[in-house]
Amino acid sequence: MKPNQPYKRMLALGLALLLATALSAQSELRQTIRGRVVDDVTGYPLPGANVILRDAEPVRGTSTDADGLFALTDIPLGRQSLEIRFIGYETRTLPNLYLSSGKEVQVEIRLVELTTSMEEVTVTYEKRKDEAQNELAMVSARTFSVEETERFAGSLGDPARMVANYAGVMTQNDSRNDLIIRGNSPIGVLWRLEGVEIPNPNHFGALGTTGGPVSMVNNNLLMNSDFLTGAFPAEFGNATAGVFDLNLRSGNKAKTEFTGQVGFNGFEAGLEGPFSKKEDGHKASYLANYRYSTLGLIHKIGFEFGTGTAIPQYQDLTFLVDVPTEKSGRWKLYGLWGTSAIELGRDLADQEGNSYNGRGTATDFGSSLGVVALSNTSYLTQDLRLRSTLSYQQTGSYTIHDSVRNQGTEVIPFVRSYSTEEKLSFSTQLRHKINARTNYSLGVILDLYRIDYLDSVHLAEYGRFITDMDVRGDLGMVRGYTQVQHSLGERWKAYAGLHLLHFGLSGESALEPRASLALKTSERGTLSLGYGLHSQVQPKSVYFFRTYLEESDSYLETNRNLGLTKSHHLVLGFNQLLTPNFRVKLESYYQSLYHIPVSPSQGAYSMINAGDFFNILVPDSLENTGTGRNYGLELTLEKFLDKGFYFLFTTSLFDSKYKGTDGILRNTAFNGNYVFNLLTGYERRVGNNAYLTVDVKGVWAGGRRYVPLDVEATLASGEEVRDWENAYRDRYGDYFRTDLRLGLKLNHRKFTQEWAIDFQNLTNHQSLFMEGFDFDAGEVYRTYQQGFYPMFLYRLQF
């Protein structure tokens, strides 16, 4: 018998048992759909709207109450569709809602007011997934549908990895989820959660970056959100690349529910429900979810992974309390907290029992993020809404990095970095729908920061640590915006906005115009044009980097007067829905970036490349004279989930260049030139109460740009030396990866189980990530992207 045959038999037996369990429960189970129907512009509840279960025999339906709430009970499990009607509004269909026995379905339905009278026209439409939730985002935006995209193979329940499949987005590092949008640095991405801007909602995120290996954002708690890749509306500021605008769902207002899960993101437990189950109660609800790292928990209970294995330790908590009131509006209290730590490269013991990496380095790293916010939404009139939010957040990170030589016997301390940043923020927005054709918004955002940065580097020429950053203090930023949208007849829609940003440290202000125009070329086709000027403050630690003056043994802050990085965005797009479930989208763009910090002494250096690695490397004496430009063409072919089948094909052809102080036009670190994504999946019902899913993903992209290693100079100096004259000229070989996901959902009378296995990099293709120098071995070594790796998921809901 071959050695692997018992394992194959065990796997086959397990699958057979699962299928037998699915087929044994043949009695048809039922569930409830709850939701809220609101106006698309203001979010005002629409009482008396008719909600109909489509394709039901006999016809079934209900109406919304005074708060716009409804409940459809005793609905068969599986895929169901709703139709929502309200006088004076476009009729909307909501297709392919998945009902399981363990959890009620909750939806929020936004209806668009008709611009003509009912006698003239009646419109029925689906809220298309190629459009954004935010009606002001008319170009380079789409809805992020949690229920569907969590099935994407390789996404591992991470929102950032899910949207990496969309046109214009690529990733360069399998171990991280940084979003590279249209050749821009990931530090230009803005994350927003329930209207609150957060710096980096990822575990192991270094200060100033926006990505990490594991997301803190729990996709089990999200509702449909927006992902924007260019020329975004004026309410979004301090970003030059893109926006991920996430929304948390509210807890179940009628029933207490529990979710338990184990997978890549950790062991987790979630609880949600109403504060009162009375029919005449105040309909307040709560939800909370806690996670702990899978490997970390297994290690804590005594399981050993082998000498030198790095065990990631992380945990996070997300919560939301939703309290609607009759007189003071709707209150939400919500928060996100997470902490993480890891010891990297400790796999070689020295004579004193310490352990270090044979590659010559050892690193301890940790990070944390805490956000808590209180928001209020009040309606001064049915068409006039005021939403205000007060939030506090704290983020921090530390790095201890050593150089190790001679088989671990020579340890040279190199980096000691400890950073903490606090932010108190207040934002308010007034939105007014003048009529069905015109609406406008006014908003203000006030941010007060308290920073504490301490960073030191051990330099051989001085034989001691040099403190290149040591600052504690306060600084502020003020922003305001106004925006208006108007329908010009039945075919044209126009948007215009202004965003004002003032940064207190530098005293610089920026006034940014935004505009877009959309032409409805047919009943299902739209041609759009958008423009925006976008500015961004540098990562705040950059301003306080110091120059050491040896002759006077003193420091000089040479980056304190840096200005804002700026970018012009121009986007032209065409979107055509060929059938109700199949669309094609073509979009072209041009970005001109300027005022980018560059270095007079290092001609090839530019902050435009910051974020291409785990942290941000900053030299001194930077100046805002750098430039860059990105342009490209994007194609999307998408069949939305229908009759159990979907596919998504996206391709991006682009070019990303920059100039430093040497005036040479170079590739940016993110200029992969092309990326192709193909995803497809099939869902099949097994018996009455189970679903089997198969999802496949393939990615082919241009290889990672790099700065070549100068081996001769490295050997002569005793430390790695890069050839910056040829920075980013060449790429490593093309990146290729295939992922396969198999899933089974089992519905029982009182609960639902979900089993899934994600085969990461199914073909075990070796994509080169980086090259470095091993001083102990005296040779160049290569590090590759993630190889074949299976990931399991189990979810229980009741």
Description:
The protein has 798 residues and is mainly beta. The chain is built from 6 helices and 46 strands. The strands form 9 sheets. The protein has a 22-stranded antiparallel beta barrel. Strand 23 and strand 24 form a beta hairpin. The radius of gyration is 27 Å and the shape is globular. The two termini are 43 Å apart. Mean pLDDT is 88; it is low at 1-8, 118-127 and 348-356.
Q: Runs with pLDDT <50, length 5+? A: 1-8, 118-127, 348-356
Distance between the termini: 43 Å
What would you report as the Rg, rounded to the nearest angstrom? Answer: 27 Å
The major pleated sheet works out as: 22 strands, antiparallel, barrel
Helical/strand content category: mainly beta
Fraction of residues in helix? under 10%
Q: Number of helical segments?
A: 6
- For the secondary structure, the number of strands is 46
| Overall geometry | globular
Note the beta-strand portion.
over 45%
Mean pLDDT: 88
Summarize the helices and strands and which ones pair or pack.
Elements: H1 5-24, E1 30-39, E2 50-53, E3 60-63, E4 69-76, E5 78-85, E6 91-99, E7 105-111, E8 124-126, E9 141-144, H2 146-149, H3 159-163, E10 169-170, E11 180-181, E12 189-193, E13 196-198, E14 202-203, E15 214-215, E16 222-228, E17 242-248, E18 257-263, E19 266-274, E20 285-292, H4 294-300, E21 313-324, E22 330-344, E23 348-349, E24 355-356, E25 361-381, E26 384-405, E27 410-433, E28 438-459, E29 464-488, E30 492-503, E31 508-520, E32 525-536, H5 540-543, E33 546-549, E34 554-557, E35 565-579, E36 582-598, E37 623-642, E38 645-659, E39 665-667, E40 674-686, E41 690-701, H6 711-717, E42 735-747, E43 752-760, E44 768-774, E45 779-784, E46 789-797
Parallel strand pairs: 1-7, 6-8, 12-17
Antiparallel strand pairs: 1-4, 2-3, 2-5, 5-6, 9-16, 10-11, 12-13, 14-15, 16-17, 18-19, 18-46, 19-20, 20-21, 21-22, 22-25, 23-24, 25-26, 26-27, 27-28, 28-29, 29-30, 30-31, 31-32, 32-35, 33-34, 35-36, 36-37, 37-38, 38-39, 38-40, 40-41, 41-42, 42-43, 43-46, 44-45
